[in-house]
Design a protein that fits this description.
The structure is a single chain. This protein has helices at residues 17-24, 37-50, 61-72, 86-89, 94-99, 115-121, 143-146, 152-164, 176-183, 187-191, 217-229, 238-250, 255-272, 298-307, 330-347; strands at residues 5-6, 54-58, 78-82, 102-106, 133-139, 168-173, 196-200, 211-215, 286-290, 310-311, 313-314, 319-323. With 348 residues, the chain is α/β, with parallel strands linked by helices. The strands form three sheets. A seven-stranded mixed sheet has the order 2-8-7-6-5-3-4, sandwiched between helices. A three-stranded antiparallel sheet has the order 9-12-11. Strands 1-10 form a two-stranded parallel ribbon. A hairpin with a 4-residue loop joins strand 11 (313-314) and strand 12 (319-323). It binds pyridoxal-5'-phosphate. Residues 11, 60-62, 65, 86, 139, 143, 172, 174, 200, 202, 211 line the site of pyridoxal-5'-phosphate (PLP).
């Protein structure tokens, strides 16, 4: 059979046989009663990794983010972030729809955190005239930005400046594992830069479902209420938490392979189609190509490459995204490079 490289997203991974076995054997209980030992173990493990007091298992990263935001901001308050942030672009307006939160954003190349822009935009106490900023959201790594890792020094500067004026920080760390593997920075160092942190087990780590929100114990207690209110109170969900624990044991270090493959693809494609990507911008497992630089629209390129078995996702009319993960190996990467290289090179 012809090689197919499904690079649309790292959410496409299927649980391995070993992960499935871990799920089958999981001890379970009713988690709404706080009686599922596997969920409790996962929450403890993630809280410790992130250096926070407590954590809460969530069905999705979107719910983890939105509950996090709800802890910091309510109706008529503001959250600010960059214009490509997942919480703005891809959670279907949840902050407005559920929490009455308004948002403003700064434009940042490749989703890179712009601390000066954030601080200049922030209005900690708007009084009667301006909306007050309750929270800044930082995404690390940055999905639509192309897997961008945020520098720890910038995260620390933001943390200090916001704390001085009582503005909170939420870290959307859906792929914080990738940032940590790419840089060697401990998860707890990233965790210390935010009041709330969301992480996903269902992206490159390969679990079928699951995210975790970490914070101090009082906030996690409140988060438990919001999760239930939103319909996210789950029962014998240790089956899923076991997949997450298995992923933490077996699938974190291997993320480095995904990063190396994405970088290798970027280097090859930059050689045949200069301007589509700067390989040094590819920090982790996500390759975002500016295909307009090679004379393509993203929709057209993604469709043509898809016909040859290389599947991607057009994030906007100019940009096509290709994501490496657990189910993508070297031959698939070679195939993707050959197909994309030929298409991009044909008009460059
Ligand atoms: C950066 C980021 N945050 C949050 C999410 C939301 O995760 P979920 O699809 O589990 O809601 C995603 C999903 O891809 C993401 O990329």
């Amino acid at each position: 059979m012809a090689v197919v490289a499904d690079l649309r997203s790292d959410t496409l991974t299927r649980p391995t046989a070993a992960m499935r076995a871990a799920m089958v054997d999981a001890e379970v209980g009713d988690d709404v009663y706080g009686e599922d030992p596997t969920v409790v173990a996962l929450e403890r493990r993630v809280a410790d990794l992130l250096g926070h007091e407590a954590a809460l298992f969530m069905p999705t990263g979107s719910m983890a983010n939105q509950v996090g935001l709800r802890l910091h901001a309510g109706p008529g308050q503001e959250v600010i972030t960059d214009s490509l942030a997942h919480v703005l672009r891809a959670e279907l307006g949840a902050a407005a729809a559920y929490s009455g939160i308004t948002t403003r954003s700064w434009v940042a190349g490749r989703g890179r955190l712009d601390v000066d822009a954030a601080l200049a935009m922030m209005v900690p106490d708007g009084g009667l005239y301006q909306v007050s900023t309750a929270c800044v959201v930082v995404e690390n790594t940055h999905n639509f930005g192309g897997g961008t890792v945020q520098p720890l020094a910038d995260l620390r500067r933001l943390r200090e400046a916001t704390a001085e004026v009582g503005v909170r920080v939420h870290l959307d760390g859906a792929r914080l594992w990738n940032a940590s593997v790419a840089t060697g920075v401990a998860l707890s160092d990233y965790g210390s830069c935010a009041d709330t942190v969301s992480v996903c087990l269902s992206k490159g780590l390969g679990a079928p479902v699951g995210s975790v929100l970490a914070a101090d114990a009082a906030r996690i207690q409140q988060a438990r209420v919001w999760r239930k209110r939103l319909g996210g109170g789950m029962r014998q969900v240790g089956l899923l938490a076991a997949a997450g624990l298995h992923a933490l044991d077996h699938h974190v270090d291997r993320l480095a392979h995904d990063h190396a493959r994405a970088r290798r693809a970027a280097e090859s494609l930059a050689a045949v189609a200069p301007g589509v990507v700067d390989p040094t911008d590819v920090h982790t497992n996500i390759l975002v190509l500016d295909v307009s630089a090679a004379g393509w629209s993203a929709g057209e390129l993604v469709a043509r490459a898809g016909e040859a078995g290389v599947m991607g996702y057009p994030t906007d009319p100019r940009h096509a995204r290709y994501v490496w993960h657990l189910d993508v190996d070297d031959p698939m990467t070679d195939h993707a490079v050959a197909v994309l290289g030929e298409l991009l090179g044909s008009r460059a």
